[in-house]
Structure formats: structure tokens, C-alpha cells
Amino acid sequence: MSKVIKINLLLLIVGGIYLIWLKATGMGVPCLFHMLTGLYCPGCGMTHALLAISHFDLIGAFKAHWAFVMCLPFMAYLYIAICWRYGQKEKIIIYSWENKMMILMIVIWVVRAIMLDLWHIG
Ligand SMILES: [Zn+2]
User: Which of 2-11, 34-43, 69-78 has the highest mean pLDDT?
Assistant: First the structure.
């Protein structure tokens, strides 16, 4: 079994155990930013969106972090593609168009965060 598959299996197992724990107890890792400021960070929105997706609640996920939900298919593709290429060539290969898409995602996330903080839209 290749190193990439082992690492991904480990992440899947750890993530699955954490999700089961979270659903059973409602106790997750607290967000330090939220604890200190009372504001939600982008990670909070992504976590809420992922939890909603795990309940097959796409509307709830969209409300929690629409930019994350919109970018999720690309992020899944990119993750699988990078793992695949690493497994083939033993190095991380990211194409130019993928870099541009990642920059676009970051810009969308920043604009969303600004809209959310300043005008409570987003
Ligand atoms: Zn947070």
C-alpha cells in the first residue's frame, strides 16, 4: 500500500471518528477566534457547512458557508488529483489553471468574509 493511500486512510478514519464523536456528544474542538472575539471565522462556517452536509442538509450547508459549498467539488477534485499525481510521480504537481482557481477561491472567501462582517450578508 502506497504512502499516499495510508495517509488518506488514516485521515478518513480520524475524521470519521471525530464526526461520530461530534454527532454523539455535540462536543467539538472549540474555535479560539470565536471564543476570543464572539465572531465566526471562515473555519467555523466550513465546519458548520460540513456538519450540515453530513446530515444531507445542503440548504443548511449553503447558509453556513455558501462559498465553501460552491468550491467543495473543486477542492475534492484537487485533493484527489494531487494525491493521484503524487502517487504516480512522487512529487506534488499543481497545474497553472488549478493555481488560478485556488486564488479565485481565496478571493471569493475574503469577499464573503468582508460582506459578512461589514454588512452581515453572505
Ligand atoms: Zn472559527
Answer: 69-78
| Angstrom distance (rounded) from CA 106 to CA 15 | 24
Is residue 33 within 8 A of residue 41, CB to CB? The reply is yes
> How many Å apart are CA 94 and CA 92, to the nearest integer?
7
- Rounded distance from Cα 109 to ligand 1 centre (Å): 14
Cα(88) to ligand 1 centroid in Å equals 36
101-115 residues labelled b (16+ CB within 10 A) or e (exposed): beeebeeebeebbee
pLDDT band at 46 (very low <50, low <70, confident <90, very high): confident
Grid cell listed for 67: 462559498
User: Cα-atom radius of gyration of the chain, to the nearest Å?
Assistant: 17
Q: Report d(CA 42, CA 109) in Å as an integer.
A: 8
Measured CA to CA, the distance from residue 64 to residue 36 in angstroms comes to 20
